[in-house]
C-alpha cells in the first residue's frame, strides 16, 4: 500500500499561504551602561527584524558613555566613564562569534562623552571629556585601523573644544554633531572630516538647537540622523538629519516618543534606525524610524536588560550600516564630479556602466559656483578656481578614495574652466581676464601664463585631443552681444594666444565640452535669454563651424562633462526648464549622433567640476 502524505505540507505550499518569508536575524551590538548606582559591562545584540535585545557577554571594563563604531566584522568600543572615572580602554567584539569583548588598545587620552563613526577600515572618535571632577575637554580626534588591534593615533582636531557630541556619516565622511563647550554652553556646530585622510575638521552646518549628550545616531548611505539631546536645562525630543554629501544645516525629521530617550544608543542597517534605551532608565522599549522618510519614532522591541540611567549610552556598532560596507573596487574608466555650493564633496561614476554615482571623497578646498571642467591624466585630476577670487588648484588621485591635496595656485583667482592632454593642463580664468594658465599635471606647483583667449570671457567650454585644446563660446559679462560663438584653439605643448577655429551654432556661454581623440562635443549653454539643450560637435584636427549632434534631456548649463573617449557623461548642472540644479546624469556615444539618454542619478544636485581618466586628450 502506498504511503499517505495527507496533512503533510511541503515548503512551496507553506510559502504559498505565507507571503512573508522569515529573515535570518541581523544584529547590531550595544555595550556598557549605568544602573543609577553602578556602571555595567553588559553587551547585547539588537535584532533589526524585531528590535529585541539578547545578552552576549561583557566588556573588559564596566563603563558608560563610550563611543561605538565598527566594520562588517568587528564592533569597537572606545573609552567611557568607569567606576573610578574616565578610562582609555578600547575593546572589540567579533560579530561572527560575539561573547565577551577583547582588549583592542588605548585611546590617546582617557575620555568619555565622545562621538564615533567609521568606514569599513578606519574608526574615528572625537569630542572628549578628559578628566573626572576637573571636567576639562579636548578637541582631539582619534583614529583606529579596525582590522588591527592597537592604540589610537591622532587624526586632527574638531573646529572647537567640546564634548558630548554625536558621531555619524557615510563611507567617506564622518560628521560630528553639536556638543558642550565646557564652562560655556551647549553648541550647534556640525563638523566633518574625510575618514581616509588626517587633518582638522571643517564646518558642515548647524543643528537647530544648542545640544549635547545626544550620543545617538543612525546612518544610511545618504543620510545621517541624530536623536534628541540636552540643552543645558531640558532634554528635547527632536530628531534631525543631514544629507552626508551636501554641507548644510540640519533638517527636522520628527520626534522621539519622549524627550528623556535622547541619551540611548543608535543602530542602523541602512533602512531602519533603532534608538535603544533612555536617559531616565525607566523604559526597556526601543524606538524605530525609517531613515529614507521623515516622521516620528515608533515603539520597536525591548532591551534584554535595563534599570537605570544611560544604560545603553555606552556605544553601538552594526555590521549592516551602509557606512561600513566595503566599497566596490574603483572602475578602470572613472569619472569624478566635485560638488559646488560651498562644499568639497567628490562623487564618482563608472563610465562604462549605467548607474548612480557613489561617494569618493573631498577636494582640498571648498568651491562655490565657478569651477568647471578639470585637467587630468590617466592617474591625476586637478580642478581649480571658483567665485570669490579663489585661485586654488586641487590634486585628486583617481586610484585613491579620500581627500585631495593642494597642488598650487592659478595666477589669479576667479571662475575657471579647464581641460588637458595627458601631461599639461590648461585653465581659462574668466571674469575680467582673458588669461590662459597651464600646469604640468605630474608636478605640483603654481600655474604659468600660457597666452590669451579670443576675448575677455568667462566659462568657455574646453576640450581637445593630445595636441590641440579648443575653447568654445563664453560670457563677456556685458556689452552686446554679451555671449560669443567663437571657437578658438591652441597647441597644448606650446604657448601663445588662441587661433580662430570656427563658430558654434549660436552665441552662448556656460556650456561644457568633452572629447574623443577625433571629436570635441559641446553640450548645452545659455544664450542670454534662454538655456539650450543643443549638443554640437567639431572635428578636432581640422577647423570649421560646429555641426548639430542632437539634444540633451533638458535645457542645461554649468555641470560636469567628461568621457572615456567613447561615451560622454553629463552630470548634474542647472536645468533651465525647472529653474533648479538637478542630480540627473546623462550620456551619449561620441562617435555617433543623437540625443542623450538617462545614465543614473548623482548624490548631489549642484554645478560640479569634473573630469575622467580617459578623455580624448589622454593618449
Task: Outline the structure in words.
The structure is a single chain. With 619 residues, the protein is mostly beta strands. It has one helix and 53 strands. The strands form 13 sheets. The chain has a five-stranded mixed sheet, with no helix packed on it. A five-stranded mixed sheet has the order 28-34-35-36-37, with no helix packed on it. Strands 3-2-1-24 form a four-stranded antiparallel sheet, with no helix packed on it. A hairpin with a 7-residue loop joins strand 22 and strand 23. The N terminus is likely disordered.
Provide the CATH architecture of the largest domain: 6 Propeller
Summarize model confidence as the mean pLDDT: 87
Within the CATH hierarchy, at the fold level, what is the topology of the largest domain?
Neuraminidase
The name of the CATH superfamily of the largest domain reads: Kelch-type beta propeller
Helix content percent band: under 10%
CATH class of the largest domain: Mainly Beta
What share of the residues does DSSP label as strand, in percent? over 45%
Task: Give a topology summary.
Elements: H1 11-16, E1 27-34, E2 39-47, E3 53-58, E4 67-70, E5 74-82, E6 85-94, E7 102-111, E8 115-118, E9 122-129, E10 137-145, E11 153-157, E12 166-169, E13 173-181, E14 185-194, E15 202-211, E16 217-219, E17 223-230, E18 235-243, E19 251-255, E20 265-268, E21 272-276, E22 285-290, E23 298-302, E24 316-317, E25 334-338, E26 343-350, E27 358-367, E28 371-373, E29 375-376, E30 380-386, E31 390-397, E32 402-403, E33 405-409, E34 416-420, E35 424-429, E36 435-440, E37 448-452, E38 461-464, E39 468-475, E40 483-491, E41 499-503, E42 512-515, E43 519-523, E44 534-539, E45 547-551, E46 556-557, E47 560-563, E48 567-571, E49 574-575, E50 580-581, E51 584-589, E52 597-601, E53 609-612
Parallel strand pairs: 27-32, 28-34
Antiparallel strand pairs: 1-2, 1-24, 2-3, 4-5, 5-6, 6-7, 8-9, 9-10, 10-11, 12-13, 13-14, 14-15, 16-17, 17-18, 18-19, 20-21, 21-22, 22-23, 25-26, 25-53, 26-27, 29-30, 30-31, 31-33, 34-35, 35-36, 36-37, 38-39, 39-40, 40-41, 42-43, 43-44, 44-45, 46-49, 47-48, 48-51, 49-50, 51-52
